Amino acid sequence: MKYLEKFRKRIANRDSILGLIFLAFSIILFFGIIPWQVVDPKVAGVFIAPDFFPRALAACLMFLSALLVIYGHATSAEFERSADKRITTATVVSILSLFTAIWAIRWIGMMPSGFLAMILLMRLFGYSNWKRAILISVGFIFVLFLFFERVASVDIPRGALFDGLF
Amino acid sequence: MELISDMLDAIVTYAVTYTAHFKSGLLLFLTFKNVLAVFAGVTIGVFCGSIPGVSITMAVALTLPFTFSMEPLTALSLLMAVYVGAIYGGSFSAILLNTPGTPAAAATAIDGFKLSQQGKAGKALHMANWASCVGDLLSTIVVILVLPLLGGIALYFKSPEYFALILFSITIIGGVSGKSMIKGLIAGGLGFLVATVGVDPFVGSDRFGFGVLQLTAGFSFVPLLIGLFAIPEIFMQLNRSRQHQGAATISKHIGVIDPEDSKLSMAEFLVSLPHMIRGGFVGLFVGIIPGLGATPAAFFSYELARKKSKNPETFGEGSLEGVAAAEAGNNGVNGSTLVPLLALGIPGDVVTAVMLGAFMIFDLQPGPLMFIQHIDIIFGLFCALLMCDVALRLVGMVFIKYVQKIVTNLSTSVIFPAIFVLCVFGSYSINNNMFDVLVMFCFGLVGLVMTIFEISTIPFLIAFVLGPMLEKGLRRSLSISDGDFMIFFTSPIALGFFALTMATVFSIARGSAKRRKFNSDTALEK
């Protein structure tokens, strides 16, 4: 029990928990995902099968994850996490909003989505002047449109709602 | 005596012939149009290279149509100048915003951005500029002098040698893993794993496709790179801005900047000069081998500099030597990347493939015959490359003066949202595919998680680039030898690289053990 308690205390740190997560992932990868997702057509004359490298990597990950579980307490102690490397409410809100803006491209097109994403981020960053924010966003998106569509000949998506209108 | 006399005669004849060819090339190049083309090309290249999402290939490809009405040497000079400028241009956004404009600038970002955060952005930018010029100049001079001999080196690199070289390159991961070697290796393993997604290159079967059509081609490199670097930085800047309770400028976050920190001193330049020279030779060597490119050269050079430096502990924390080595390495490729193209007619990468297209448009066929039929154009192109270094320094100085001021004094609440939107447009433009935008965002979240858990993204990136090359080298070699592993041990070049790999692994392991002992001793003392 003493050794179990000692072991439990030793792995009760961020990096050891991370190691456990990676260990679980690599085990699932090796025994579950690779047999399911890597097809080996058994072609004659091929000496290394398509699943060789994925399996070798999964095995390496298992080994390294186990090391991280055991030595995680040492690596965690080496540095402190700075305040800007945290997941805050603003981070979560911005991730969800930006994902929505990217998803919306297929409906409203890249330029309106880009405009909305830019306004939203500027607001989250603390830009308070709405009128200027709109002007800057419109101007920037227009410059990007000119460069990518007119100069680089990239077909900027118009979205399902506006496709064919412009 | 007779042998020595014959050798001397051969050397003198070679020198006289070469000088005559160089003179004719120089006379052909030295026109107002050609010089203007070089300066314009470098400016376009630096501008495009500094924008994340606008790749070097895109910059060169965009310039190509404008060259149709030009003379062959003017057109080729312009394209080459765009390439040289773009390789250097990637360092601007890498240093100022931790968002490499080009994949090769990812190595520059390691120390460049840290220097920027310490208020030394000007110093870092000047160092990057000088290192680019020195690396490029060195590589170009060597190429000019020994091009016919260098062409032969590429022929010695077959699959076993290729595999051994890439295996050696992968040891770089140990050096850029940051404070935790284990986490760095895990990141490398994940990067290699992600690179296996797609169709198997030998049997054509699906790997990790999950029934998604777009995954058959694997993940595109540029969106992944943009996501890994740019997105975490945007979120960290967001946290920083909210802590400061409102918008701020990057310079405000840094605080008071000492004017001396905006300039590069002679002492700092001289300390980094050996790294620049070494980086130039690394780039020269890597550029000769088709398929490798500037990214491995930059990381190779960085790792060598870290080993040779008197202050290796500063690497990763804001080392000017690191910036110098990375930039010299990636620009050292510029001259030598032409070697397989001109000497053998083999394009080494996508950009030289575009240049091959340009040669064909002007009815020029690169290869051994070109040395007989159009030797003056070849030497004219070399003169253009030399002029590129002058242009790089001058254009770079202008960009440094104005871009640094603009970027560091713009509000973060404008610049980072703009970067996000630019990343979206840039990722889409690679293949005109929304899937790449999704890849950019998803790997951005992966990069954010890695940053929060203090896992370096650099090993992930290196493994993603080098992993597929390693796999191809191994499988191709075994295909050639019918499964006989002895093919790797019968090549002296391969054996040499294996020995270097083992020496490097031993050195990294020893260094890591020493550091761990030092840390535990320091903790005990406290």
Helical percentage of chain B = over 70%
The biggest beta sheet of chain B, please?
2 strands, antiparallel
Describe the global form of chain B.
globular
The quaternary organization reads as heterodimer
Over all CA atoms, what is the radius of gyration of chain A?
25 Å
End-to-end Cα distance of chain B, whole Å, is 72 Å
Q: How is the biggest beta sheet of chain A arranged?
A: none
Structural class of chain A: mainly alpha
Number of DSSP helices of chain A? 6
- Distance N terminus to C terminus of chain A? 73 Å
- Bin the helical content of chain A: over 70%
Poorly predicted runs of chain B: none
Low-confidence stretches of chain A: none
Overall strand count of chain A: 0
The overall average pLDDT of chain B, rounded, is 84
Structure at a glance:
Chain A has 166 residues and is mostly helical. Chain A is 71% helix and 0% strand. Chain B is an all-alpha fold and 526 residues long.
If you had to describe this structure to a student in words, what would you say it looks like?
The complex is a heterodimer of chains A (166) and B (526). Chain A is an all-alpha fold and 166 residues long. Chain A has helices at residues 2-11, 14-37, 52-77, 89-108, 110-125, 130-151. The radius of gyration of chain A is 25 Å and the shape is flat. The mean pLDDT of chain A is 83. Chain B is globular. In chain B, helix 7 runs parallel beside helix 22. Chain B has 526 residues and is mostly helical. In chain B, strands 1-2 form a two-stranded antiparallel sheet. In chain B, strand 1 (198-199) and strand 2 (206-207) form a beta hairpin. Chains A and B meet through helix 2, helix 3, helix 4, helix 5 and helix 6 of A and helix 9, strand 2, helix 10, helix 19 and helix 20 of B.
